[in-house]
Design a protein that fits this description.
23% strand; 5-stranded antiparallel sheet; 590 residues; 22 strands; 8-stranded mixed sheet; alpha/beta
Length: 590
Amino acid sequence: MKYFFLACLLAFSNGLFAQTDTKDWVYEYTNGKKYAVHIAQAGNTLWGLHTTYNVPVDDIVAANPGIEKGVKEGYRYLIPLGGADMKVISGTTMREHTVEKGETAFSIAKKYNSSVDDLLKYNPGIDKGLKVGQVLKIVIAPTSEAATPPKQTEKPAVSAPSVTFTDTVLVYEVKNSETLYTISKRFMVPVADLQKFNNLKSTNIKSGDVLKIPLKKENIKQVPVREVQPKEEVRKVDETLIFKSKTKYNIAVLLSFGLNDSKANTSLKNLATEFYMGVELAADSLEKLGFDATVKVIDLPMDSVGIMKVLNTAEMKDMDLIFGPLVPQSADIVGRWCGKQKIRMVCPSACNSALLKNNPYIYASVTSDMTQQEILAKYTIEKFKTAQIILINPGIAKDQELFDAYRKRFIELSKKNGNVKLIEAKLSDYTTFIRKSGESVIVLPTRDKGTVLSFINSLHKAIGKSPGADVTVMGVKEWGGFDDITGYYKTRYKMTWASSSDLNYSLPDTQTLLRLYRKKYRADMNKAGAHGFDVVYYFVKTLLMKEEVPSEVVNAFDPKVAVPGGGYENQSCFILTHQDYELIRVGVFL
């Protein structure tokens, strides 16, 4: 057993995970002052707004009465930036655009659904020509009054607020890996509304696209209050499902190091050690964020009797959050015990889906294989709806659930996307459906190595007779470990799959964590170490600190209730594809 204590600061979060890029800010000019318009998201705090915009807390409170009682998700807040740098009608909303090579006043005005006259009016001198790098002010939606968030009063004496709405349009530039769904979730605008508002024929968008997002601006009016008697008793919230704020927490990390077992599995011991190294890095980072807890790392036995002996202690029953174990069988035992004790548990590795049923205390951090196939089906329809899509039934009992998951989700989404055609085939006849000229997608949901190798050989032989065929092959993440599939085949057929995690050393967040890892351990970080960091950092911040984590290093977490009354399963994963002999991220999909 080992103890280590966590304590406080905000530097790591702002350094490793930048929250806001100034080029995405929207500004409002009101009463001779300039404000940044901030639409609150889940996890936003007053202190977070202070650090993001570098504006004193008192100034933010003065501009937004009631915000000191809590930042409310979806509310529109004005962040004071000082005196206005131009004279405009009070309530005018603007954004800034940096001129790029080849752009003209007309193209920029068209991009933001504005007018050249407005550009000339608010950007004197541009009639003489634009310069690359020049910053222009773009009018979004001028209003006649200041738009401020609703006041958050405690006990209205004789009246209560009545809220009416008017539309405010936000111009938003799509970032890398974003989808229409994630943007709709962020701004709480239905996907169908976004498509209609932007005249989109499909949900396909790419980085750099500019979307108009209709937001609701609230106007507060006072109306008389009368007492209303409830017709029936309101069902009380189960308070055991709420993390109550504490000044100090108790956390357990259960890993099987096999320190007292000479026959312990070496691979499992190494995995536990590498994961633990990531846990320690997360502890270091959380220490700088002000989180105070006692974290107890326990060498968990592999047998059920030994596990229960560890669990049935007064110390374990006093835990606020438990991480681990890494082995599904051990996780089942610990998970059932946590359900009875009403203690939250995070499964850091794949766990049995049955564990989540009727157990709302479990968080599965790894997307299940079935969910990954469902997400792959969604990606197929979004990316390849005009291709010949062929789904092969591998005829293997243990892979039937993968085939069924992909097929069911594809058919569901096809009905909503113009009835995209899906051809179901067998390994013995799938080649007859490949287009001799044009694009074909072949989906083979199997984990069996022999079946995959046989399939690749037959595919390559068939394609040799049709040089005009453009084939993309989709499988499962286990294919990444099949060394018998050469890099040539992986790139030739753009082999693609969904994966709950991806260690990409070229990304900035990964490089930052790698430097911290090397500094602490004088060794290179692997996926298990990075995963250990992600799991502990994310779930401590979101569940206990109640703060948002903008992004993870090797994961994409989005836990949701899997079954009503049950636990939470991560519903987000990466789509990975081979390109130029490298496995690259296509993006994050939900």
